[in-house]
């Protein structure tokens, strides 16, 4: 997990794509996230692209041998396909080679500007889909603040179970219901048990909630029976997206024991369309530290490199836009914030290592959710369940509207970015979805 800072991270780099050079650009030349797109309105074929400023670089429209190096040619062809699974399977040598080539090609004064200009489309002129064919989706529970907050609501006398501090807790999610930002979510139905009732009823959930998470896309994967060590976990991590793991809290309360989440989680999970690569996130690595009173990770989850730079300084925000606010032309209201480096009890490398320690085989394009990211301070809660103290304290929005849980027509928006002095700011775009009636 040695540092991979190189000239692609140089904060002084400028692109000949002018929109990439503004101070608040989500996708400057130091970012170059990958996604899959086609022309808006269903025109054209799905293919891979890279975001630069407010444009999409159509990788399929670039002559395959333009960068001359065979490694780059192979990577370019794989990254331009209709899913990125084949590209992720190639591994870090190919990812880094293509990043370097695209960075050189998009810099001011590049000899490839004339050719690459023909491969640019406006982001508003394209539609996005899931960047990989996700074979498996696992959701973890990495924020100790979220786990404690939720535990207090369900188990006031024993909010944090003893295994939490020793093992990265996770469950197997439903990959078939993954959706990309912009797709609406239908309010789910299921069983609930009303207070004092002797039998459950079936109907629409009344407690739809968001969960502020990140998603990690897996690269080459490992063979079944061959665990990934903490020292090698970094090479399995391609990049991150924003992730909203929608939850039906009333269905969850009735069904979650003894086997955990089921229908309360499987109806939808929404992700942002662009994968910000781990290479782009390199300047924002941070030390992974546990408080002195906390148990230290077991040896298989520990390494000097993970302690030195296993965390990522990544800022997150949650916004809520009601139907009334939308009709009045009002902006979404920010309802919470978080920081991944401060909220996560486990690192991404530890998630990969623990997931495979039993011999489980991860595959290219698999998705790992981090679990809800909540901080320790008020306003840093990553779900309405926490913000409203289990539905007892409604939050008030500009204009006087109140919310306990989400109503039909409500839109939840997540935003994320990384910034540090002396380093170029990079963003994730956003993940947004609206709740539709059952």
Mind explaining what this structure looks like?
The protein has 438 residues and is an alpha+beta fold. It has 2 domains: 7-128, SH3 type barrels; 137-436, Fumarylacetoacetate hydrolase, domain 2, CATH 3.90.850. The radius of gyration is 22 Å and the shape is globular. It has helices spanning 70-79, 85-90, 92-106, 113-117, 144-154, 249-255, 263-266, 304-309, 323-327, 340-343, 348-356, 384-387, and strands spanning 34-39, 43-52, 55-58, 120-122, 126-129, 137-140, 170-172, 178-180, 185-186, 189-192, 201-204, 208-209, 212-218, 237-244, 247-248, 269-271, 276-277, 285-286, 311-312, 315-321, 333-339, 367-369, 395-396, 402-403, 411-418, 426-436. The protein is built from 12 helices and 26 strands. Strands 6, 7, 8, 13, 14, 16, 17 and 22 form an 8-stranded mixed beta sheet that branches. Helix 1 packs across helix 3 (92-106).
Query: How many domains?
Result: 2
Residue-averaged pLDDT? 96
Low-confidence stretches: none
CATH third-level topology of the largest domain: Fumarylacetoacetate hydrolase, domain 2
Q: Quickly name the level 1 CATH class of the largest domain.
A: Alpha Beta
> If helices are DSSP runs of H or I spanning 4 or more residues, what is the number of helices?
12
- Per DSSP E runs of 2 or more residues, the count of β-strands stands at 26
Strand content: 25-35%
